[in-house]
Design a protein that fits this description.
The protein is α/β, with parallel strands linked by helices. Helix content is about 45%, strand content about 15%. The strands form 2 sheets. It has a 7-stranded parallel sheet with strand order 3-2-1-4-5-6-7, sandwiched between helices. The chain has a 6-stranded parallel sheet with strand order 10-9-8-11-12-13, with helices on both faces. Helix 8 (about 200-215) packs parallel to helix 13.
């Protein structure tokens, strides 16, 4: 019976691929036993059980950038996490351990390699973090979502698989009318979808505010996910004055319908967002967050712009330039089509299955 440990988390960008890989393994080989290992107090400890899998938390923490006494505990928590990882691996007996990034993947994969258990890494971004670069040295296979990753990883280990995505989010075929009814919009109007993630993005909210006069002038609809942090302030200031063509929501739980009605999407450039956008194939404007580690969102976006598959709008220029960019795009259907075709060509909707096949094939060898 195949046994696999999947380790990592901390953000949805790590957790959703991990769950997608687990789901694909169970579909392809229902007898597979899967155990997740995460970090105590992080979101995987809630999300993974909700998806139907057992998870064990390690006490691992990252080093705080500011000076704090909490940093003195980090070496001790690392040692404790390594010892716990050894016990978990010994008791569960996996044939393979997969790391998806995040605090827990470091000690878990390092201990697995020390114990002679084959490890694999799934890297979501075009610029990998330090942890995955270190773990790749002992890994048997490295699953990546972007080309030219041999700049960071041993070429012979790399498998270009794409990022496993939430399939329900990209199932958009034939749903435009249903989406219009769901959001209270007009299926016949050109619709722009602005999304800054579950927490929202201040700059994207500011971009939409700056667009309101143009949207009215050009008869455009806007579907706008503000994020929970900003919604109430925006609703107090704008809510009563917004026309019916502007739908402002704190959070959107039906991303399939949001993508279905969108004629154009403006988004941050997180790895999972980009992977979904590549599958749905809509013209896309990316506004990378400059605040993430190693500026990896900019590098993710550049991987698309180099193939003329999306447009990159730096945050510093975003509010000032978004209106002109939107108008130029909607008045140039051929460019919209070009962007759509190019981003669609980069989509890998079967990434979860491809990774599951490789994992199972390795265990059967």
């Amino acid at each position: 019976m195949p046994k696999v440990i999947i380790s990592g988390g901390g953000t949805g960008g790590h957790i959703f691929p991990a769950i997608a890989i687990a789901d694909a393994l169970k579909r392809e080989h229902p007898e597979t036993e899967i155990l997740f290992v995460g970090a105590e107090g992080k979101m995987e400890m809630e999300r993974v059980p909700h998806a139907g899998y057992h998870i064990i938390g390690l006490p691992i923490r990252g080093i705080q950038r500011k000076l704090t006494l909490k940093n003195l505990k980090v070496p001790f928590l690392l040692l404790k996490s390594l010892w716990m990882a050894r016990s978990i691996i010994k008791e569960f007996g996996p044939q393979v351990v997969i790391g998806v990034g995040g605090y827990a993947s470091g000690p878990l994969l390092r201990m697995a390699a020390w114990m002679g258990i084959p490890t694999m890494v799934q890297e979501q971004n075009s610029y990998p973090g330090v942890t995955n670069r270190l773990l790749s040295k002992k890994a048997k296979k490295i699953f990546v979502a972007y080309e030219e990753m041999d700049r960071f990883f041993p070429k012979e280990k790399i498998i270009l698989a794409g990022n496993p995505i939430r399939r329900t989010s990209v199932d958009i075929e034939g749903k435009r009318a249903k989406a219009a009814e769901y959001f209270g919009l007009d299926a016949a109007k050109t619709t722009l979808f602005f999304v800054g993630g579950s927490l929202g993005a201040r700059v994207i909210n500011q971009m939409v505010e700056s667009l309101l006069p143009i949207a009215e002038e050009k008869d455009l609809q806007i579907l706008w996910q503000t994020g929970g942090n900003a919604f109430f302030d925006l609703n107090d200031r704008l809510g009563r004055n917004l026309p019916s063509t502007i739908k402002m929501l704190k959070f959107i739980d039906r991303m399939d319908l949001a993508y279905a009605i969108a004629d154009m999407v403006c988004s941050r450039a997180g790895a999972m967002s980009i992977s979904e956008l590549c599958v749905i194939g809509k013209p896309t404007i990316l506004v990378p967050s400059p605040y993430v580690s190693e500026d990896h969102q900019t590098k993710n976006a550049q991987a698309l712009t180099q193939k003329e598959a999306a447009l990159l709008l730096p945050e510093k220029q975003a509010v000032e330039e978004i209106a002109g960019l939107i108008v130029s795009l909607i008045e140039d259907p051929s460019r919209m089509k070009h962007l759509s075709e190019n981003i669609k060509a980069m989509g890998r909707p079967e990434a979860d299955v491809d990774i599951a096949h490789e994992v199972l094939k390795y265990m059967e060898a």
